[in-house]
Specification:
This protein has eleven helices and 15 strands. By secondary structure, it is an alpha/beta fold. It folds into two domains: 5-121, NAD(P)-binding Rossmann-like Domain (Rossmann fold); 129-286 and 319-342, 2-Layer Sandwich (Dihydrodipicolinate Reductase, domain 2). It has a nine-stranded mixed beta sheet. Strands 3-2-1-4-5-6 form a six-stranded parallel beta sheet, sandwiched between helices. Helix 5 (106-119) runs antiparallel to helix 10 and helix 6 packs parallel to helix 8. It is globular and about 70 Å long. The model has no long low-confidence stretch (mean pLDDT 96).
C-alpha cells in the first residue's frame, strides 16, 4: 500500500480548519506541518487536530523544517497571498493544492500557472462544488441527451453569505462574485461540458447589506455552443435561502432538469406525448463516507503523474468568467469577451 501524501497546510482560519479535518479523515493524506501566524487560530486548529509540535508561524519556516518530509502544500490563505505561496511552494519542489479563487488578480493567476508549469509540479484548485452528486449526475444526464440540446440555464442563489465582520470577504470589492460566484461558474463549465465566450454583469449592494463591496449580481453568460446561462445571486439574503449549490433550471426541447433542494428532477409537460415529472436519483461516488473526493482526485493525479481535474491552467477559464463579470459590472453591464480576459 502506498504511503499517504504528506502535506503542509497553510492557514487555520475557518476554511483552513475545514481542510484540516478533511485531510485528517482521508486515508491517503497526512498533515506533516501546519502554518498559521495568528495565535487564536492556532489554538482553534490545535483543538480540532492540528499537530501542535509541527505548527509554524510562516511557510518559509515550515519548508525549512520539513525539507524532504513533505509532498505538497495546501494553500488556504486570502487570494492576495496565493501567488507568494505558489512561488515558495514550487521553488521548494512541492505540488500545490490551492483554495479558490486562484487569485484576486487575473495577471497573477496567469503567472502562477506558468510557475507550476516551469517547476513541473501539479497545481490544482479546490473547486469542490463540481465533485458533488448534483453536478456529477446532471453532467451524465445531459450527456445522455435526456432533454436534447441545452438552450438555456438559470441559476438562483440566495444566502446570508460571509457575515463575519472584518474578514476579507466583507471588506474587499466584488468578493461575492469572486469567491462564491466562481463555484457556480465552474460548475456551469463542468455540467455543460462547454466553454464560455462572453459575460455581462450588473452588480449592486442592497441598503441593508453588510459587505463593503457589491454582494448581489445578475450575470449572463454566452457559451461557445450558443447556450445562454443566467446567474442571479444575493449574498445578503435575510429570508429564505437556497442551498449552497443554488436552484438550477436547465432547459432543452425535451424538458427541463431542475435542482430542487438537494434533489434533481426531469420534467417535460408542454406538448409531451407522455408527460414526465420524475426524480433523477443522484449518482454516488464510490468512496467511503467522509472521504473527500477532491483530495482523492489530487492524490490520484500525483501518484499517476497526470493533471488533476480543475488543474490551474484549466481553472483559468473559470476564473476568466469571474474577471469578465467584474469588468462588465465596472463598465455598467457591457459585454466582455472571455478572450479579452484570457489574452490579457
Amino acid at each position: 500500500m502506498a504511503e499517504p501524501l504528506r502535506g503542509i497546510l497553510v492557514g487555520l482560519g475557518g476554511r483552513g480548519r475545514y481542510w484540516l479535518g478533511n485531510g485528517l479523515r482521508h486515508p491517503d493524506v497526512t498533515w506533516a506541518a501546519v502554518v498559521e501566524p495568528d495565535e487564536s487560530n492556532r489554538q482553534r486548529g490545535i483543538a480540532v487536530g492540528a499537530p501542535a509540535d509541527r505548527l509554524f508561524v510562516s511557510l518559509d519556516d515550515a519548508l525549512t523544517a520539513m525539507r524532504g518530509e513533505a509532498d505538497f502544500v495546501m494553500d488556504v490563505t486570502p487570494p492576495a497571498v496565493h501567488e507568494a505561496v505558489a512561488q515558495r511552494t514550487f521553488t521548494a519542489g512541492l505540488h500545490l493544492l490551492g483554495e479558490k479563487p486562484m487569485s484576486d488578480d487575473f495577471a497573477a493567476a496567469r503567472r502562477m500557472v506558468e510557475l507550476g508549469r516551469r517547476a513541473g509540479k501539479l497545481h490544482m484548485i479546490t473547486q469542490n462544488y463540481r465533485f458533488g452528486p448534483q453536478p456529477r449526475t446532471t453532467r451524465r444526464v445531459l450527456a445522455q441527451d435526456t432533454i436534447g440540446s441545452v438552450g438555456h440555464v438559470d441559476i438562483a442563489f440566495y444566502m446570508n453569505w460571509a457575515d463575519n465582520p472584518g474578514s476579507h470577504y466583507v471588506l474587499f470589492p466584488y468578493m461575492f462574485t469572486k469567491d462564491m460566484g466562481i463555484h457556480h461558474f465552474d460548475m456551469l463549465r463542468y455540467v455543460l461540458a462547454d466553454e464560455p465566450a462572453a459575460a455581462q454583469c450588473v452588480a449592486w449592494n442592497p441598503a441593508w447589506g453588510w459587505h463593503k463591496g457589491d454582494a448581489s449580481h445578475v450575470a449572463v453568460f454566452t457559451f461557445v455552443s450558443g447556450v445562454h446561462a443566467v446567474h442571479r445571486g444575493v449574498g445578503c439574503a435575510v429570508g429564505t435561502r437556497t442551498t449552497w449549490n443554488g436552484e438550477w433550471r436547465i432547459e432543452g426541447p425535451r424538458g427541463t432538469i431542475t435542482w430542487e433542494g438537494n434533489d434533481i428532477f426531469h420534467t417535460h409537460l408542454h406538448r409531451a406525448e407522455h408527460p414526465v415529472r420524475e426524480q433523477v436519483f443522484a449518482d454516488r461516488p464510490p468512496l467511503p463516507p467522509n472521504q473527500d473526493p477532491l483530495l482523492t482526485e489530487f492524490v490520484a493525479a500525483v501518484r499517476e503523474g497526470r493533471q488533476p481535474e480543475c488543474h490551474a491552467a484549466d481553472n483559468l477559464r473559470s476564473l476568466a468568467m469571474v474577471e469578465a463579470c467584474v469588468r462588465s459590472a465596472q463598465r455598467g453591464g457591457a459585454r466582455v469577451d472571455i478572450a479579452e480576459v484570457l489574452q490579457g
